[in-house]
Amino acid sequence: MDKLDSQRPAARALQTVRNLLLAVALYTVLTAVLQFFFYGSLTSTHPPRPTNQHSSSSSTDSPSGSKSSNGYAHLRPDSLVVANDAYMGTRPHVDTYANFTRLVEVCRGSITSLERMKYVYDCMQYLIERKDDYYYIPTENAPSIGYPSYVPSSVNDIGTCNGPIIPYHIWWSGKCTWRVELFIKSYFHSQNLPCSRLNLWLDVDVNPNAVDEMMRDPGFVRFLPLVKRGDIKLREWKFPARVLLRQANDGEGNGKIIKLGDGAYIDEMGNEWLEFSTRKMTFLPVAVSDAVRFVVLHYEGGVYCDMDNVLLRDLRPLLVPPNHGFAERWGWYEGPWDYNTAIMSLHPNSSLSQHFLKGAVKMGINFHPYIIGRLVYKDGRGEEFTMFEDGFFDPIWGQFNTPGVTRCTVPCLENYGQAFLGRKNAIPKDWKAYDGPKFEEIDGGVSGNDAGRNSDGAKNTGRSAYEEDWSDKRRRRRRGGAEENDNNLQPRAPAGFAPGYDIDKDPYPPNNRTLENFFRGAYAYHIHNQWAKHPEPNSWLDMVRKTHDGFLNGNRVNMYGEKWNGPQLVSYDPFPEFN
Ligand SMILES: *[C@@H]1O[C@H](CO)[C@@H](O)[C@H](O)[C@H]1NC(C)=O
Ligand SMILES: *[C@@H]1O[C@H](CO)[C@@H](O)[C@H](O)[C@H]1NC(C)=O
Ligand SMILES: *[C@@H]1O[C@H](CO)[C@@H](O)[C@H](O)[C@H]1NC(C)=O
């Protein structure tokens, strides 16, 4: 190309486009390479690019190709066992603090040797059995001092918290898929509702009408009563041009702007700001969502959760202690800087939250956990930002990269895809680590509300309408059990199932999976993306959905033995491909 040619406007435009494309390509390659080297995988742990939220799940994850249930979908029972729904005991008191020092000591060991880091099973056993050892109620300055008394929520009223209300933050861009529904329902299933608020941040840089569209989204419409009740707030996320670091007191400021360097300055009124020159920043959704959590937590505190989590326990005891900044470890990476921020918490307006923001600006508005983690560590502030081990929020992450090193978790999943599998024997080691009593399998199985009972003992308070039904089931023969000689058996279809149903031919037969054994002790399970995948019937994730539905239609209790007393929620939509 000669000089004259390259100076023509068209050619210059072309050149600009080419440079831009090159830059994008370079960025993509670099990110992938970095990701691969640092984390050993190309799968990010972050929310999706909007483009893949709508793609259909045409992937061939089933060996036989077909996903259909061969006509058994409407005949099969939901489960072979009656779940013990209230397996967590009573909900922690509103003032309960988790002892971070103790939790780190037990589940990690020392910071240099990490003696306990890989003992995820033991960590979770501790979390479930030793609440008395790591939970406590402060004797002085309890957070609830001065608050009104507790009023539980009801159909139209969110209730009253007898302590500070904790904000929860999630971010999304795109339609309300079943995965958004899964997170939100897991929140309602597990958290202390009068004492929590769920902020759903919608990216209005990508779609200026995101809030309106969400309010009309068929997937979200079911939650409108809870928007009305005040549980869910739809918030507009716009990438800010600057962030307020410190608000001036009256009379501060000398009418001039004072530059402090690295993007920070004090304005005429004395407020301290941090400038985000967004020119420097890539607007990939992953990068945006990385930034959202730090900005939002700096302003409002509480907890940020990536949408690809399922909450399994009340997070409050981790969120109310005075210095509760935390995130997770990246699998079994050993660096004290190897944070993952899929679930993280910061004290608002704190020196730590400011430090993160300033650091990210220095690094060119880069909030990637790898960058941020190195930063806090290098600046000697790692101690202030607790790193929780895999057993808290992501139990399987380390174990399947190095299988067999320590005892597996229950269930023993060897990759993130297995939580979606419902075919018989699809998960070879599913129960490998379990050594508790076997569940009684009910002949003919159980469905709907009968699939859960209120508490461990024989009592079934609250399900009296089903009492008779229940004892009927008990009287029937157990599958393969010892009560073969029961003469009171009612005549019934073979093996007690509905006429026409053959459990051996059903591709997704009912089984004994219950939420009680889905990473019990962990606060959350991290699905890690897989946005387009649908859980097969009777997979672990399908069981989670059914458990949510049973609770949210008011019939089953949650893990704390509580009944849902909010508006009745529409159940999850079935996935037609599994019919
Ligand atoms: C928290 O745990 C640490 C370490 O085990 C212990 O020394 C401390 O006394 C505990 N704090 C409370 C308030 O129980
Ligand atoms: C943080 O500071 C801002 C401005 O200084 C203030 O509006 C906000 O209420 C503070 N947030 C919290 C949770 O204290
Ligand atoms: C659940 O079923 C599997 C497969 O039949 C079995 O290996 C496992 O022990 C059962 N678990 C319980 C708790 O009964």
From TrEMBL:
<keyword id="KW-0812">Transmembrane</keyword>
<keyword id="KW-1133">Transmembrane helix</keyword>
<feature type="compositionally biased region" description="Low complexity">
    <location>
        <begin position="55"/>
        <end position="69"/>
    </location>
</feature>
<feature type="region of interest" description="Disordered">
    <location>
        <begin position="46"/>
        <end position="73"/>
    </location>
</feature>
<comment type="similarity">
    <text>Belongs to the glycosyltransferase 32 family.</text>
</comment>
<dbReference type="InterPro" id="IPR007577">
    <property type="entry name" value="GlycoTrfase_DXD_sugar-bd_CS"/>
</dbReference>
<feature type="transmembrane region" description="Helical">
    <location>
        <begin position="20"/>
        <end position="42"/>
    </location>
</feature>
<dbReference type="Pfam" id="PF04488">
    <property type="entry name" value="Gly_transf_sug"/>
</dbReference>
<dbReference type="GO" id="GO:1901135">
    <property type="term" value="P:carbohydrate derivative metabolic process"/>
</dbReference>
<feature type="region of interest" description="Disordered">
    <location>
        <begin position="443"/>
        <end position="509"/>
    </location>
</feature>
<protein>
    <submittedName>
        <fullName>Uncharacterized protein</fullName>
    </submittedName>
</protein>
<dbReference type="InterPro" id="IPR029044">
    <property type="entry name" value="Nucleotide-diphossugar_trans"/>
</dbReference>
<keyword id="KW-0472">Membrane</keyword>
